[in-house]
Amino acid sequence: MRAFHSGDPASMIARRLSSLALVLGLLACSVDDRTLGAPPGPTEIGASGAPGEEGGAGGAEGGAAGERPSGEGLVDGCADLDTDGVADCEATLLENGTFQSDVDGWTVLGEAELGWEPENALGDLPSGSAKLSAQLPRASAYQCVPLDGKHLVIAYASAWVEPSDDSEDPPQAELEVTFFQGEGCSGVSDGYFETPPSADSSAWTTIQAGGQSMETTQSVSVALVGVKPSSASELNIYFDNVMLKAQAP
After folding, report:
1. Would 24 be classed as within a structural domain?
2. What angle is formed at CA 159 by the lines to CA 177 and CA 202, rounded to 5 degrees?
3. What is the secondary structure of 171-222 as a DSSP string?
4. Which of 186, 179, 208 shows the shortest CA–CA distance to 196?
5. Which of 79, 129, 156, 175 could form a Cys-Cys staple with 241, CB 3.0–4.6 A?
């Protein structure tokens, strides 16, 4: 792994975390005692078609979810990806995880781009999604929020991977969640977890994983991550309904 410098918000997410894909068993995070700078199988939930396709979740009419009935998968007009009957937008720690009209609150790293698109995973109109684009092997955009002490943390998102024109291997979408002992995602890391990656280009899918923060945790970052195969010239990945939820361990 690379060395990181405390206080540099870009250096944390820019690294490629070791391959630690957690299933949704809400397993405890491994403790990482390095001093770090601040940051930085999927389940089908989407419409029958992919964004931009006939019957899919694209188009100029606000990014409706195609053949998926309007309101399906929603609670009080918001996604409920963890199916607990509580609207994710009411439970999440994040700002603007639904990308209703923009990508405010998210910081893109390096030469990647993050932009708003009308494609929408569910029928919660008006709404859209965040499109992560890059020609890099790995691209990300992150958000940092306060998190005080020991919690069981789960992360969910809807993701759709645009197939590559010049590669049989599709890009992959995932979330990466990192705990920090300092405010503003600074200082020593208290561990991390990441979702199993999704490379599904046929429909919107749910990516999900969980982990546990520590008594010393003061903040947490969640990153939207795209991984590009070497044979592809670029990656384009859509994220929607990003949710980070904390509860008593």
Report:
1. yes
2. 150
3. PEEEEEEEEESSTTS-EEEEEEEEPPPB---SS-EEEEEEEE--TT--EEEE
4. 208
5. 79
Q: Is the pLDDT score of 37 beyond 50?
A: no
**185 against 21, higher pLDDT:** 185
What is this structure's pTM? 0.75
- What pLDDT does residue 31 have? 36
Domain assignment present for 31: yes
Residue 196, domain extent: 9-247
DSSP state of 47: -
User: By the 8 A CB rule, do 118 and 173 touch?
Assistant: no
Domain for residue 1, yes or no? no
Whole-number Å distance between alpha carbons of 118 and 186:
34
Q: What is the DSSP letter of 55?
A: T
In a domain, 23, yes or no: yes
Residue 95 has pLDDT above 60, yes or no: yes
Which 3 state secondary structure label does DSSP give 94? coil
Domains: count for the chain: 1
CATH number at residue 153: 2.60.120.260
The whole-angstrom distance between residue 112's C-alpha and the CA centroid of its chain comes to 15
DSSP codes of every residue in 103-148: -TT-EE-TT-EEEEES--SSS-SS--EEEEEESSSEEEEEEEEE--
